[in-house]
Specification:
seven-stranded mixed beta sheet; three-stranded antiparallel beta sheet; DNA-binding; flat; 20 strands
Length: 895
DNA sequence: ACTTTGCATGGCG
DNA sequence: CCGCCATGCAAAG
C-alpha cells in the first residue's frame, strides 16, 4: 500500500534506546534526546537534535521522506505536502472535491473539519454548507447522551456514529492522551467485571467509535510515521480498550475526551487546525477530558499542569453512565465562561433527585463522577470544595463520602443554599464543569421546565431551537435554562418534576430521553438547519468575522453564538443598524436595534426600545410594501447567505430554480405573494417558500396535469426522483459500506492511493456521475465563486428542498433538456406509484407531495423568513438542525 | 420534638 | 449478579 509509510520514523519498534527514532537517521541521539511525534505508548519519538529540529520546523518529511510516496500538492498554494506518514499527518487536510490542502491554506479558509470522517452519507457531499447541514442533522440519535457540544468544532462530532470499522480516522483534535498512556504503561487493569461492560463501557464506546480520537491518536502516534499492517485498525481497536482501563495515578492527568471546545483566545490557527483534523468528534460523550493537543508531543506536560488535579486511585476506570454525560450547550458553556481566557470543561451533570433537592442539603454525587472529577478523598469527612456558580458566586460544599456496601457514596453537603439560590427542585439538573486552566469547579444548572419546554418544543416543532412559541429563552446574561441538546428529561414527559415517590421513575427510567422525531408525524415539527441558522446571533458584544468558504459567507464568532428570535436585519445603509421582528402575539413587525438579542417569544411588550410600540395595539410601522421589500429575495438576510441572486440571474432560474425563489418571485400559479402571511403552518411566516406555503389551499387552485411543469409539480417530481435515487443509492451504499470504510482509512492515511476519486467511485458511481452532470449543468450558474477549485459544483444552485445528503441531486436551476426529461420521467413514476400505492408507508424524508392537494406539512423546507436568501442552500427540514449545532453557529453568516 | 448525620436498604440498570 | 444510588431510618445532637 504505501511504501511511503515505511519511512524512517515508521519503524514501529522502538529502536535501541540510544539511536534516533528516525530510522533514516543514522545518528545516535545524544543523551538528551528531543521529542518528536507521539507514539502509541504515549511517549514521544526520541530524536536526535537534527531530526528533532527538522520535525519541529516542519521539515521532517522534506528531509527524510523526500523520495517516499505520498507527496501531493496543496490545491490552494501548490505547495508540496507529504501525506503519507505520521509526521505529516497533520500537515494537510483532505478536500471534499479531491486533493489536499496544506494547513496553512486550510487554516485560512476553513473552520470546519476538512478531513472529515466521511461517513457514508457525506461521501458525496461537496458543498460545505451542505456538509454542515448534514453534520448538523445527521446522527441525531447519536447526539443522545453525547457530551458537550463545542460550538466551533461541533461539525465533527456528529460523526460519532460511525461504525466501529471506521476507527481509522485521525483524531479530530489531537487528543492528548499521553498522560493516559503513561498510565497505560503502568497499566493497571480494571476488574474484569468492568471490562465486560457493554455499551456504556468506556472501551466499548471506544470501539464503537465514540472515543475514536483517542483510538486514532493511539494508532497514529503509535505508528511513528508509518503504518504497519499490524498497526492498522485492528490494533487501534485494541488500544483504546487498554487505555480505557488505565488507572489514574495521583498525577494530574485527565482522561477521557477532550472537550471539543476551542478556547476563545487560543490562536486561531490552533483552533482551526484542530478543526481541520477533526472528524468524528465523539461529542465528547465521555465527560472525561483529554486536552487537545495539536503539537505532537508538545504539551503533555502542559496538560498535566493545566489540570492540576489530584486523582483518585480509581479514576481511570471511570466511564460514566450516559445520564451523567454533560450535555451542556455551547450557550451554557459560554455563559459559564466568565473569563474569556478560560476554557470550560464540562464534567458531568446530574438530575436532582428528591433527596438531592430536599432540605437535607445533600447532593448525592454519582460515584464515578465524584471520583473522576473531584479531589480524591480518603476520609469520609472529605474536603470542603469550592464551587463557583455560573454567576461567579462561590459556594463551599463539603465533598465527602459514606461507606456503603464496601463502596462509597459520595455526597456534596451543604448544597441547599446553592440549590435554593438557583431555585432548583427535583428534576432539574445541575451541571459541573471545570474552568481551565484555573481548574475551578463551576456548577450550573438546567431547569427541568426549561428543558421540558425546550424539549417539547424541540420535538414538537423545532428540534431544539427555541424559536417562536418556545419556552422562555434563557436570558443570555442570566442562567442558562435551555437545553438545546435535544434531550428530554425524564420528568418532562410527565407532569413536571414532581419526582414521584416511586423510586426512579420506573416507567421512563432514569435516563434522559429524546423523543424520536424521525417519524412522519413529527416531521413537521422539525426545524431546519436553515431556520436554526436564523436563530443564531452573535454573542453579545461580539463582532463576528466574516469568512467566505466555498462561496458562502459565514460569521465566525469567537464565542458561541446565542439563540434569538428570528428577525430581519435590513442593509445598513443609514448607519442605523436595526432589525425587524415579529410580535408573537399580534404578528406585527417591530423595529429594534440590530444588536438587541431577542428571546424566542418576543412580543410587543418586550419592546423596550420603542415604548410607543410596546403594546400590540400600536400600529405597525412597516407598510405592506416595506415589509414585502424586507422579505424580498434580494433583501439581505441575517444568516447563511448563499450566492446572491442577481436580478440578472432570475432569468436563469426561471422555471426550475428553487421553490423558494419561485415563490418569492411570485412566479407560477401556486406561489404566494411574499409578505402575505400564511396560516398554512404555524411555523410558516410571510415569505415562507416551502412547498406547503407556495401552494393554494387544499382543493383550490388549478388542477395539475401529469405534464404540468409548474413549480409545485416540478418540485414534487424532483423530490420523488430524489427518493428514487436515494433508494438506489442507499442500496449501493450498503454494499459499498465495508469497502468504503477500509478505503477511507487507507485514503486518508495514504492519499497516494488516490483516495479522492476512489472513494467516490467505489461508493457510488451513479452519484459521481450525477455530480459530474451537476457540474456540467452548472453552466448557467453565474456564481462567481464557482471557479474556486474546492467549491461545490452546486454552490449557489442548491435546492432548498433537496435532501442534504442528496448532493447528487441536480439543481433545478441548471435546467437542461435532459433534466426536464428526467423530471418528467420521475414524475411519471411518481404518479404511477401514487396510483398504485396510495396509502403506503412513505419515506418521510422525501415524501412526494401531491401538487395542489391537501397536504400536511411533512418536513418541507420551510425557510425561515430571515433566511430566505439562503434559499439556494440545500436545506431540508427532514434534517432538522439542532441548536446544539454549534457548528452552525460558527458558520452563520451575516447578510 | 426536631434536625442533622451516618449508615442501611433495596430498586434498578 | 453486582454495583449504584435514592431514600429510609435510627442515632446523635
Amino acid at each position: 500500500m504505501s511504501s511511503a509509510l515505511t519511512t524512517a520514523s515508521s519503524s514501529s519498534s522502538p529502536l535501541s534506546s540510544k539511536s534516533c527514532y528516525n530510522s533514516d537517521c543514522k545518528e545516535l541521539r545524544p543523551d538528551r534526546s528531543r521529542k518528536g511525534w507521539r507514539l502509541r505508548t504515549g511517549d514521544f519519538a526520541e530524536l536526535c537534535d537534527r531530526c528533532a529540529s527538522a520535525y519541529e520546523e516542519g521539515r521532517f518529511c522534506e528531509t527524510f521522506h523526500l523520495n517516499a510516496s505520498g507527496w501531493r500538492c496543496c490545491e490552494s498554494c501548490g505547495k508540496r505536502v507529504h501525506c503519507g506518514c505520521i509526521v505529516s499527518a497533520h500537515a494537510f487536510t483532505l478536500l471534499d472535491p479531491g486533493g489536499i490542502e496544506c494547513m496553512t491554506c486550510a487554516g485560512k479558509n476553513v473552520i470546519l473539519p476538512l478531513n472529515p470522517a466521511w461517513p457514508p452519507s457525506l461521501l458525496f457531499h461537496s458543498a460545505l454548507p451542505d456538509r454542515l447541514k448534514e453534520l448538523s442533522v445527521k446522527n441525531w440519535t447519536q447526539l443522545a447522551g453525547s457530551g458537550p457540544v463545542p460550538w466551533r468544532q461541533a461539525p465533527s462530532m456528529f460523526n460519532s456514529s460511525l461504525p466501529s470499522g471506521e476507527l481509522h480516522h485521525r483524531a479530530p483534535y489531537e487528543v492528548d492522551i499521553s498522560a493516559a498512556l503513561n498510565k497505560l504503561n503502568t497499566s493497571e487493569r480494571l476488574p474484569v467485571s468492568l471490562e465486560k461492560r457493554k455499551n456504556e463501557d468506556f472501551s466499548q464506546r471506544f470501539l464503537n467509535g465514540s472515543l475514536k480520537p483517542c483510538g486514532q491518536d493511539l494508532c497514529e502516534n503509535g505508528t511513528a510515521g508509518g503504518i504497519k499492517s499490524e498497526d492498522k485498525p485492528s490494533s487501534c481497536s485494541n488500544m483504546p480498550k487498554q487505555s480505557s482501563f488505565v488507572k489514574e495515578d495521583s498525577s494530574t492527568m485527565q482522561y477521557g475526551l477532550n472537550i471539543p471546545y476551542a478556547p476563545p483566545n487560543e490562536p486561531s490557527a490552533r483552533g482551526r487546525i484542530s478543526g481541520t483534523h477533526l472528524r468524528p468528534t465523539p461529542l465528547s460523550s465521555l465527560p472525561k477530558q483529554i486536552h487537545t493537543n495539536l503539537q505532537n508531543g508538545a504539551d503533555s506536560n502542559e496538560t498535566q499542569l493545566r489540570n492540576g488535579r489530584p486523582r483518585g486511585e480509581s479514576r481511570g476506570k471511570n466511564y460514566l453512565l450516559p445520564r451523567y454525560w454533560p450535555r451542556f450547550t455551547d450557550q451554557e458553556l459560554q455563559q459559564i465562561s466568565v473569563d474569556s481566557n478560560s476554557v470550560i470543561t464540562p464534567l458531568f451533570e446530574k438530575m436532582l433527585s428528591a433527596s438531592d433537592a430536599g432540605r437535607i442539603g445533600r447532593l448525592v454525587l454519582p460515584k464515578k463522577c465524584a471520583e473522576a472529577y473531584f479531589p480524591s478523598i480518603s476520609q469520609p469527612e472529605g474536603l470542603p470544595l469550592k464551587v463557583q456558580d455560573a454567576k461567579g458566586k462561590e459556594w463551599i460544599f463539603q465533598f465527602r463520602f459514606w461507606p456503603n456496601n464496601n463502596s462509597r457514596m459520595y455526597v456534596l453537603e451543604g448544597v441547599t443554599p446553592c440549590i435554593q439560590s438557583m431555585q432548583l427542585q427535583a428534576g432539574d439538573t445541575v451541571t459541573f464543569s471545570r474552568l481551565e486552566p484555573e481548574g475551578k469547579l463551576v456548577m450550573g444548572f438546567r431547569k427541568a421546565s426549561a428543558t421540558a419546554d425546550q424539549e417539547n418544543e424541540t420535538n414538537k416543532t423545532k428540534n431544539g431551537a427555541p424559536v417562536q412559541g418556545d419556552a422562555e429563552l434563557a436570558d443570555p446574561t442570566s442562567w442558562t435554562k435551555v437545553d438545546k441538546s435535544g434531550y428530554i428529561a425524564k420528568e418532562v414527559l410527565g407532569a413536571k418534576p414532581s419526582i414521584s415517590r416511586k423510586r426512579k421513575n420506573s416507567t421512563l427510567g432514569s435516563k434522559s430521553k429524546r423523543l424520536r422525531i424521525d417519524n412522519e408525524d413529527m416531521i413537521e415539527l422539525k426545524i431546519t438547519w436553515e431556520e436554526a441558522q436564523g436563530l443564531l446571533r452573535p454573542p453579545p458584544n461580539q463582532v463576528p468575522n466574516i469568512l467566505v468558504i466555498e462561496g458562502f459567507e459565514f460569521e465566525e464568532y469567537e464565542e458561541a453564538p446565542v439563540l434569538g428570535k428570528p428577525s430581519i436585519i435590513p442593509p445598513d445603509n443609514t448607519g442605523e443598524r436595526i432589525q425587524w421582528t415579529q410580535c408573537e402575539d399580534c404578528l406585527k413587525w417591530r423595529k429594534l436595534p440590530a444588536s438587541a438579542l431577542l428571546p424566542s417569544k418576543w412580543t410587543c411588550s418586550d419592546n423596550s426600545w420603542e415604548p410607543e410600540r410596546s403594546f400590540c395595539s400600536a400600529p405597525q410601522e412597516l407598510s405592506t410594501e416595506q415589509l414585502e421589500e424586507l422579505l424580498s429575495p434580494v433583501a439581505p438576510v441575517k444568516k447563511m447567505k448563499a450566492a446572491k441572486l442577481e436580478p440578472d440571474n432570475v432569468e436563469a432560474l426561471e422555471g426550475l430554480d428553487t421553490l423558494a425563489n419561485l415563490a418569492i418571485l411570485g412566479e407560477g400559479e401556486a406561489s404566494q405573494t411574499p409578505g402575505q402571511a400564511t396560516t398554512k403552518h404555524p411555523r410558516h411566516r410571510p415569505g415562507c417558500s416551502c412547498i406547503v406555503c407556495i401552494q393554494p389551499p387544499s382543493g383550490k387552485g388549478p388542477k395539475h396535469k401529469q405534464t404540468c411543469t409548474c413549480n409545485v409539480c416540478l418540485t414534487v417530481k424532483r423530490r420523488f426522483r430524489t427518493l428514487m435515487l436515494r433508494r438506489e443509492k442507499k442500496q449501493f451504499e450498503k454494499e459499498a459500506e465495508t469497502t468504503r470504510q477500509r478505503n477511507q482509512f487507507l485514503d486518508e492515511m495514504f492519499p497516494d492511493r488516490s483516495m479522492d476519486d476512489e472513494s467516490l467511485t467505489c461508493s457510488n458511481t451513479s452519484t459521481s456521475k450525477l455530480i459530474e452532470e451537476g457540474k456540467m449543468n452548472d453552466g448557467s450558474d453565474e456564481d462567481p465563486n464557482r471557479n474556486k477549485p474546492s467549491t461545490s459544483p452546486f454552490k449557489g444552485q442548491i435546492d432548498l428542498n433537496m435532501q442534504p445528503e442528496r448532493e447528487d441531486e441536480l439543481s433545478p436551476g441548471s435546467d437542461s433538456g435532459s433534466m426536464m426529461k428526467m423530471l418528467q420521467d420521475t414524475g411519471d413514476r411518481f404518479l404511477e406509484q401514487q396510483r398504485s400505492n396510495s396509502g403506503g408507508t412513505r419515506s418521510s424524508s422525501s415524501d412526494p407531495l401531491e401538487p395542489g392537494g391537501e397536504r400536511e406539512h411533512k418536513g418541507e423546507s420551510s425557510s425561515n423568513v430571515i433566511d430566505r436568501s439562503s434559499n439556494n442552500l440545500d436545506v431540508d427540514k427532514d434534517h432538522p438542525a439542532t441548536l446544539s449545532l454549534n457548528p452552525s453557529a460558527s458558520m452563520s453568516a451575516t447578510g
